[in-house]
Write the structure tokens for this entry.
Amino acid sequence: MSTEQQVLQILDDVLSLGGRSASFNRSTALLGAIPELDSMAVVSLITALEEQLGIAVDDDDIDGSTFATVGSLSDYVSAKLG
Amino acid sequence: MPEAFFLDAPEGGQRFCLFHRAERAHARVLYVHPFAEEMNKSRRMAALQARAWQAAGVSVLQMDLLGSGDSSGDFGDASWSDWLDDLQLARSWLDGQGNAPLFLWGLRAGCLLASAVAQRWGDVSGQLWWQPPVSGKPLVQQWLRLKLASAMKVEGGGKLALDDIRAQLRAEQAIDIAGYRCSAALLDGLERARLLAPTRGRLGWFELSRASPPALLPVSQQTMADWAAEPAALHAEAVNGPAFWQSTEIEVAPQLLARSVDWLKRA
């Protein structure tokens, strides 16, 4: 599974999207565009990414730009996976 | 239908309780609920489990801790040690309902509280932990991150730094996050809390997993491996299901309910 696919699966779980993420692509807007993505969901998302992908998110990275789109988030995770 | 009532707390407050009474109960369970919003999101699962146990001959007491749910007090006034005291209050009441073996059932941060009082009391027959965090530290980090996340703006800029938040916490001895005011005493206690390997009784460690096959978190496996001596009768299991304590929609994990009833039956 690609990083983007893993991120989409985690997004689907955390936000209870029920498979809606299947229609998402890199340019799909996240923060501000998906009502389910409130601050609680952002933290759950970060925790899930950390636990399931084994990355450590720096608090400085908790920024609008990281969560702007599926693409920005996947790129961030890919960079962390090194 | 559970019995709903208030218990008088020593400092003058009241704690809201729900008791699922089983006739001729062969076990008593004391629920230790999770922290803040996780408590609300997991109400349905807790109710389903209590009901399932009642039908299986187990009595279950659920008490809202100081400042939580329908109990008196402001969340901002609660400290970790207040909550430990509350569990003593609950236990004392439960001891008046017969002497069937007593089990502690914790969910998330509740497991940390359960673990602490189990050690204090030294006589529980067992503990059931649902999604236990190995320490309170990551929970506090997640909690403080909530504040960072809510200050996030799509266009960037003007973001909070974790240092600012910790400074505010030190200065005011309290912090407002996601509609909850938390005292420094509470976050401090939570941060220091650790899961303690039970020295007696059975331990059921359950986690929810989306993996196929379901798998325990690496950090959990490591913790169990690190325990100097394996606690008597440790049962650790991952089941498929949603992280219902944090999911956007209220969700249930039927497998967890069934496996928990089963575990207690064998305990």
Notes: The radius of gyration of chain B is 18 Å. The longest strand of chain B covers residues 202-209. Chain B has two domains: 3-134+197-266, 136-192. The interface with chain A takes residues 37, 138, 142, 145-146, 148-150, 152-156, 159, 161-162, 178, 210, 217-219, 242-243, 246-249, 251 of chain B (CB under 8 Å).
